[in-house]
C-alpha cells in the first residue's frame, strides 16, 4: 500500500513490515489515506447555511432543542470473526465489516441513524448487541444495545436494525455491550457534526486510543473469574487508531503465535500554520490514557458530547469511554517538521507496554523519516482523575437544581463462595439474564426482578443525585446510559458536601472516580427507560460492577416497543433452546 517505511522507536531503526490489511483489515484509519472530515454532511437542507439552522453550541439547550432534519444515515454492519495483527502479534478478533477499528458512522445533528447489524459470528457462534455510546435515546430506550437490559442478544445468523436520532453532537463511538466482546474488536468511531463557536481549519477525525490485549476477551475473563483468579488484568500494548509496534522478543517462551516487530504505527498529516481538530476517543478495555503531542499545546473544546469553554493543556486524560475534542495549531516548526503523538497508559492502570506513539507529518515532511521530537515532561498527578472540574465548564450553562432524591452507591470487591473475585455495586454483584431484558419486562408491567440484576427504580424523580463511594484502591470510569450527568464533585475519601460551580457544573457521560475516593453525579429525570450505570472497564463490568436505573416506569409500561425487539428475543430464545450459552460473566 506504499505505507512501508522506516520508523525509529526507542533508538532502534525498524521497518513497517505488515500491510494495512494484515494489521487492521479493511480499516483506513491511521493511514494517510483516511479522508479529512467535512464540517457537515451536505446532503441536508441548509436553513441559514447549516443543517442545524440558527442553533448554536453556546446559546441553545441541546436537551430541549434539537433540529429534526428528516435525513437518514444508513449503515450495514456484519460482525464476524477474523485474524489480524494490529501491533504485529497475530490474534483472533471480532470485526465489524472486516475492519479494526470498525467503520465510522457520520451524521449531522438531528439526523436519524439506522444501523442494521448482522450477527455472522461463527466457529463458535455467540450473541452480540451494539451500544451507541453517549446517545440519549429519548423515546427509544430499546435501541440502547445493552443485552439483558434493553434487548436480548442478537442470535447467531440473525439481524437487528437499530434506529435512533442524533440528538446530541460531537464525538463518540459504538461498541458491543455483550460481555467484554468489544475489547476483541467490535467497536468504531461516531462523528455527529454540529455547531461550534471554536474556529478550526481541518477536521482530522477520530483518534482512537485503546489498550490492547493479545488474548481474546473470553480467555481473559475465563481466567479472571476462575476460582482463585485475579481481578487484575494487564494489557499487552497500547494503540492509536488501532496501530502500534510490539517487541516480539517479550513474547513468553513457548508461544509460537506469529509475531512481527515493527508492524507499523498510525500517521497523520498537518498543514503548517493551520488549526486541526482531533477527536480523541478512549475505546480501550481498561487503561486510563494520557494523550499529548510533542511541541504542541492543545485547546480542549468538548468533553464527551458537551462543548466546553476552551482551555489549553499539554496533556489530556481520558478514562475508558471518554472523548475529548482538541484543537491543535501546527505552529511547532517549519513545513518539513514531524512530531510524535503519544498516548501513555496511566500508572493508575495495569499495562505491560503503556506507551503508544503515532507520527504527525507537516505538509512537506518526509514521511520516510521518523519524527525526532522530545516528549513534554508533565509529571503524572497519580490521582487517576480527569482534568480539574474547576476548568471544565460547559459552553451552554445549566444550573444545578436541588435533587428530589439522593442514592449512595458503594463500590466493593469480594470473593464469593466458589472463590471467585467479583465486584459489588450498591451491595450487589450484577448478573444479567440475556433471555429477560429488564426493559421488555417493564413494558409488560413487571417491575420485580431478581436481586442479582441490580435494578434501581427512581420512578418520576425530577433529579437524582448519585454518590459513588469507591471502597477499592482502583479508579473507575463511571458511565451512565441515556444521559449527560452533572459532575458535582470528585476527590479522595468521603464527600464533604462541596459542589464545584453549581451555577454550571461539567456535564458528560463518563467520569473517573479515584481509588478510595468519591464521585458525586446528578441527572435530571424525564428520559423514560432502563439505563445502565456501570464501570466502563470491561473487566470490572464483567465482574458485576453494573447496575440498571429505571426512570418513569409508567411511561415505559405504556411505550410502544417495536416488534423487532420482541422478535430478537424470540430468536434468542429459539437459539438458546438448542445451544448452551456459556455466560461467563455479568453479561455486559
Ligand atoms: C461471515 O463470517 C465468515 C467466517 O468468519 C466469513 O468468511 C464471511 O466473509 C462473513 N460474511 C460476511 C458477509 O461478512
Ligand atoms: C509519556 O511517556 C514517555 C515515555 O515513553 C515520557 O517520556 C513522556 O513524558 C510521557 N508523557 C506524558 C505526558 O506523561
Ligand atoms: C461465584 O461467581 C461465579 C462467577 O460469576 C459463578 O459462576 C459462581 O456460581 C459463583 N458462586 C457462588 C457460590 O455463587
Ligand atoms: C417478573 O419477572 C421476573 C423475572 O423474569 C419473574 O421472576 C417474576 O415472576 C415476574 N413477575 C410477575 C408478576 O410476572
Ligand atoms: C424517587 O426515587 C426513590 C427511590 O426509588 C423513591 O422512593 C421515590 O418515591 C421517588 N420519588 C418520586 C417522586 O418518584
Ligand atoms: Cu472499574
Automatic annotation (TrEMBL):
GO terms for molecular function: copper ion binding; oxidoreductase activity. Residues 79-195, 206-364, 444-554 form the Plastocyanin-like domain. The keyword Glycoprotein applies. Pfam families: Cu-oxidase, Cu-oxidase_2, Cu-oxidase_3. The keyword Ribonucleoprotein does not apply. It comes from the Eukaryota. InterPro entries: Cu-oxidase-like_N, Cu-oxidase_2nd, Cu-oxidase_C, Cu-oxidase_fam, Cupredoxin. Keywords: Copper, Glycoprotein, Metal-binding, Oxidoreductase, Repeat. PANTHER family: LCC1 (PTHR11709:SF145), MULTI-COPPER OXIDASE (PTHR11709). Belongs to the multicopper oxidase family. This is Cupredoxin. It comes from Diplogelasinospora grovesii. The lineage of its organism: Eukaryota, Fungi, Dikarya, Ascomycota, Pezizomycotina.
Amino acid at each position: 500500500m506504499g505505507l512501508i517505511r522506516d520508523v525509529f522507536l526507542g533508538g532502534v531503526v525498524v521497518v513497517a513490515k505488515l500491510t494495512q490489511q494484515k494489521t487492521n483489515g479493511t480499516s483506513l484509519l491511521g493511514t494517510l489515506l483516511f479522508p479529512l472530515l467535512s464540517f457537515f454532511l451536505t446532503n441536508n437542507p441548509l436553513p441559514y447555511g447549516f443543517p442545524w439552522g440558527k442553533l448554536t453550541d453556546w446559546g441553545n439547550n441541546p436537551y430541549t432543542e434539537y433540529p429534526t432534519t428528516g435525513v437518514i444515515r444508513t449503515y450495514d454492519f456484519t460482525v464476524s470473526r477474523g485474524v489480524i495483527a494490529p501491533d504485529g502479534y497475530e490474534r483472533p478478533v471480532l470485526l465489524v465489516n472486516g475492519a479494526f477499528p470498525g467503520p465510522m458512522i457520520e451524521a449531522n445533528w438531528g439526523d436519524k441513524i439506522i444501523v442494521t447489524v448482522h450477527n455472522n459470528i461463527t466457529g463458535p457462534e455467540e450473541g452480540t448487541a451494539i451500544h451507541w455510546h453517549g446517545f440519549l435515546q429519548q423515546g427509544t430506550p430499546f435501541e440502547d444495545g445493552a443485552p439483558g437490559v434493553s434487548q436480548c442478544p442478537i442470535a447467531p445468523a440473525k439481524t437487528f436494525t437499530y434506529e435512533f436520532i442524533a440528538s446530541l453532537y460531537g464525538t463518540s463511538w459504538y461498541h458491543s455491550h455483550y460481555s467484554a466482546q468489544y475489547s476483541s474488536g467490535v467497536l468504531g468511531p461516531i462523528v455527529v457534526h454540529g455547531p461550534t463557536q471554536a474556529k478550526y481549519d481541518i477536521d482530522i477525525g477520530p483518534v482512537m486510543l485503546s489498550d490492547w490485549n493479545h488474548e481474546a476477551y473470553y480467555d481473559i475473563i475465563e481466567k479472571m473469574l476462575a476460582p482463585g483468579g485475579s481481578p487484575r488484568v494487564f494489557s499487552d500494548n497500547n494503540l492509536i487508531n488501532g496501530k502500534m509496534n510490539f517487541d516480539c522478543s517479550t513474547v513468553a517462551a513457548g508461544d509460537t503465535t506469529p509475531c512481527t516487530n515493527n508492524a507499523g504505527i498510525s500517521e497523520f498529516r498537518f498543514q503548517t500554520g493551520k488549526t486541526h481538530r482531533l477527536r480523541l476517543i478512549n475505546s480501550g478495555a481498561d487503561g486510563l490514557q494520557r494523550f499529548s503531542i510533542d511541541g504542541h499545546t492543545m485547546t480542549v473544546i468538548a468533553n464527551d458530547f458537551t462543548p466546553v469553554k476552551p482551555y489549553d493543556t499539554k496533556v489530556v486524560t481520558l478514562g475508558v469511554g471518554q472523548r475529548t475534542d482538541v484543537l491543535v495549531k501546527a505552529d511547532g516548526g517549519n513545513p518539513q517538521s514531524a512530531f510524535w503523538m503519544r498516548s501513555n497508559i496511566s500508572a493508575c492502570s495495569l499495562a505491560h507496554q503503556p506507551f503508544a506513539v503515532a507520527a504527525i507529518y507537516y505538509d512537506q515532511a518526509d514521511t520516510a523519516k521518523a519524527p525526532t521530537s522530545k516528549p513534554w515532561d508533565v509529571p503524572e498527578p497519580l490521582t487517576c482523575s480527569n482534568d480539574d472540574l474547576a476548568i471544565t465548564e460547559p459552553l451552554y450553562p445549566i444550573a444545578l437544581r436541588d435533587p428530589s432524591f439522593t442514592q449512595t452507591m458503594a463500590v466493593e470487591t469480594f470473593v464469593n463462595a466458589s472463590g471467585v473475585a467479583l465486584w459489588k455495586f450498591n451491595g450487589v454483584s450484577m448478573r444479567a439474564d440475556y433471555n429477560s431484558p429488564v426493559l421488555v419486562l417493564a413494558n409488560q408491567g413487571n417491575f420485580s426482578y431478581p436481586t442479582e440484576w441490580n435494578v434501581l427504580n427512581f420512578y418520576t424523580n425530577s433529579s437524582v443525585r448519585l454518590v459513588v463511594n469507591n471502597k477499592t484502591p482502583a479508579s473507575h470510569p463511571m458511565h451512565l446510559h441515556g444521559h449527560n450527568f452533572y459532575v458535582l464533585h470528585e476527590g479522595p475519601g468521603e464527600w464533604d458536601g462541596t459542589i464545584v460551580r453549581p451555577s454550571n457544573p461539567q456535564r458528560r457521560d463518563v467520569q473517573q472516580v479515584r481509588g478510595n475516593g468519591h464521585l458525586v453525579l446528578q441527572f435530571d429525570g424525564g428520559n423514560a427507560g432502563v439505563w445502565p450505570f456501570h464501570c466502563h472497564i470491561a473487566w470490572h463490568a464483567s465482574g458485576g460492577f453494573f447496575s440498571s436505573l429505571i426512570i418513569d416506569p409508567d411511561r415505559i409500561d405504556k411505550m410502544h416497543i417495536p416488534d423487532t425487539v420482541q422478535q430478537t428475543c424470540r430468536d434468542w430464545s429459539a437459539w438458546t433452546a438448542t445451544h448452551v450459552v456459556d455466560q461467563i460473566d455479568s453479561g455486559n
